[in-house]
Design brief:
Blueprint (H helix, E strand, L loop, with lengths): L3 E6 L4 H11 L4 E8 L5 H7 L3 E4 L6 H9 L3 E4 L16 H18 L5 E4 L1 E2 L26 H18 L4 E7 L1 E3 L6 H6 L4 E5 L5 E2 L1 E3 H13 L4 E5 L5 E2 H7 L3 E5 L4 H10 L7 H7 L8 H7 L7 H10 L7 H15 L15 H4 L30
Parallel strand pairs: 1-2, 1-4, 2-3, 4-5, 5-7, 6-7, 7-12, 8-11, 9-14
Antiparallel strand pairs: 10-13
Helix pairs in contact: 1-2, 1-7, 3-4, 4-5
Length: 389
């Protein structure tokens, strides 16, 4: 694939912009064009590196002219089914901005004879969720499901991809079905749900299993698919699973069970108080565990995510703001010290560079008290009769 010209969609987001930047540095890639409906911020532009950026809304047929003019031979639809946070998509308009955008992109690829490879990022939501589901989903299990919401959008998108494959059998098509992507740089409704603080609503009486994929592993997998020869659908997730309650506890939040019948009212109240990371559909999706079998990922692609589900989620959790601000924690320390009759340790502040204090050892001073509340080294009074040491 020497001298390949690659088009990557969704470059205002982390995964796509990081992928475009890496591909632009690869010796087998001649040119990378990143497209999105919104302009990337400064961090995304830095990740793009030598990749070019063109502002294009995929719902506009102009994307065909971009592909034709540049002679694109590889298209990576990395935008997925989540619009960029800065796009401010109205509620209920996700289908128009994602699925219809995919339809226009596939139509453009179908008319462009230069396109030889197509990678379409899909999601585990394609497996839907019901009481009749298997414990672990294989790649073939998605074909019989329709579902609603995110599952319907994912099923529709993959249906359009299969139609494209019938019309262009000469094009290699890969469809990675990614678990929820998490990391310090990813902002999605899923990560926003765990950012709620200090209480996180969870479905009453259920503790579904979760699989996630670290943002860097998602980039590495797409990079492998662009430069490789794999075709077909493949499940992608970190090893192992977490339950929903375990995940909430790992963020330092408190899970609050909510009856399923009250989810819609809870979401309406949350919107009134300014919480945008909560919706009935999202909470319903959390009651539908989607654990995927990743055997094909290891066997046919030879790829294993560097981070397990637990490791990836913990890396994301470390990027969340603390449940309590530092000032509140300090106030609680002072109150507890007053109740115990002790003097709280002073807040250590770094000494200015070059000062005598800064030249000393940086080991913090220890503030200890004895079991009777006296400081060490202070002579105790004689114990009265009736007391023992």
């Amino acid at each position: 694939m020497a001298g390949s010209v690659v088009l990557v969609t969704g470059v205002s987001r982390f995964v796509a912009s990081a992928l475009a930047g890496q591909l632009a540095r690869h010796p087998r890639v001649e040119k990378v064009i990143g497209v999105d409906a919104v302009s990337p911020d400064a961090a995304a532009r830095a990740r793009l590196g030598r990749a070019e950026f063109t502002r294009v809304d995929l719902r506009n047929p102009v994307v065909h002219r971009v592909i034709e003019a540049a002679g694109v031979d590889t298209v990576v639809h990395a935008a997925g089914l989540t619009p960029p946070p800065s796009a401010r998509v109205p509620a209920g308009a996700t289908f128009e901005t994602t699925v219809l955008g995919t339809m226009q992109l596939l139509a453009a690829c179908q008319r462009a004879p230069s396109v030889r490879s197509l990678i379409v990022r899909s999601t585990a939501a394609v497996y839907g969720g019901s009481t009749r589901d298997p414990a672990v989903f294989g790649e073939a299990d998605a074909e019989v499901l329709g579902g609603a919401g995110a599952a319907r959008d994912a099923t529709d998108m993959e249906g359009y991809v299969r139609g494209f494959m019938r019309r262009r059998p000469d094009v290699r098509v890969a469809v990675p079905r990614l678990a929820e992507v998490v990391g310090p740089s990813v902002r999605t409704p899923f990560t926003g749900y765990f950012s709620l603080s200090p209480l996180v609503p969870v479905p009453l009486g259920r503790d579904p299993r979760l699989q996630v994929l670290h943002e860097l592993d998602a980039v590495a997998l797409l990079h492998r698919l662009v430069l490789g020869d794999f075709s077909g659908a493949v499940n992608v997730a970190g090893e192992g699973v977490l339950t929903l309650h375990q995940a909430v506890h790992r963020t330092g939040r408190i899970p609050v069970p909510v009856p399923l019948t009250g989810l819609r009212s809870l979401a309406a109240v949350a919107r009134l108080v300014g919480v945008r990371n909560l919706s009935p559909a999202q909470l319903r999706d959390l009651t539908r565990p989607r654990v995927m079998d990743t055997e094909r990922l290891h066997r046919e692609i030879g790829f294993t995510p560097r981070m397990s589900t637990t490791e990836a989620f913990d890396d994301f959790a470390r990027s969340l703001p603390p449940v309590l601000p530092a000032a509140a924690v300090r106030s609680a320390e002072v109150r507890l010290a007053d109740l115990a009759g002790a003097r709280p340790a002073p807040v250590s502040r770094p000494a200015p560079a070059g000062s005598p204090e800064g030249a000393r050892s940086t080991r913090p001073a220890r503030h200890l008290i004895g079991i009777d509340g006296h400081a060490p080294g202070v002579r105790r009074g004689r114990l009265t009769r009736g007391h023992s040491r």
